[in-house]
Amino acid sequence: QVRLEESGGGSVQAGGSLRLSCVRSEYPYNTNCMAWFRQAPGKERERVAGVFLSGSSKYYSDSVKGRFIISEDNNDRVDLQMNNLKPEDSAMYYCAATTRILKSTACQRAFQTQGVEFGYWGQGTQVNVSS
Questions:
Q1: What per-residue confidence (pLDDT) applies to 20?
Q2: Measured distance CA(131)–CA(121) in Å, rounded
Q3: Which of 30, 40, 53, 118: disulfide with 96, CB 3.0–4.6 Å?
Q4: Nearest CA-CA partner of 110 in 25, 62, 66, 51
């Protein structure tokens, strides 16, 4: 069982930055694919950024590409550096991990489709961006 805990959310003005962190705990590690998703009130959940831990391939949605950076630290923590934030970035941000080991292509596909492979989820951290 993998437990995920997010932190780093908060309120910021447009153009500002925030850094989210997701810490993994509990063994054994049976996941090598993690991602950040977000959901705003009244909207569907959307993908934000993903990382293949076995090779450090990274994936981004078009809406955050060039502004957000996902990084991993020794497979224990995945951060999301969010720069040039916009009001439309306001949402609850969730860290997720797959429930099994995937190949890189499968990790990318799971991220793009928000696949059921992402079976471990954190409680979320709120991000509010004011104009």
A1: 98
A2: 30
A3: 118
A4: 51
Mean pLDDT of 6-15: 97
Q: What is the pLDDT of residues 99-113, one digit of tens each?
A: 999 999 999 999 999
CA dist 129 and 23 (Å) reads 24
122: amino acid identity, one letter:
G
Nearest to 37 by CA among 68, 72, 75: 68
The model's pLDDT over 26-35, given as tens digits with 9 standing for 90+, comes to 755 678 899 9
76: its two tokens: 């224990």
Q: Can you tell me the distance from the alpha carbon of 107 to that of 131, in angstroms, rounded to the nearest whole number?
A: 35
SS3 string, the chain, reads CCEEEEECCEEEECCCCEEEEEEEECCCCCCCEEEEEEECCCCCCEEEEEEECCCCEEEECCCCCCCEEEEEECCCEEEEEECCCCHHHCEEEEEEEECCCCCHHHHHHHHHHCCCCEEEECCCEEEEEEC
Q: Which two tokens mark 43?
A: 């909207």
Q: What is the mean pLDDT of residues 41-62?
A: 94
Residue type, 15: G
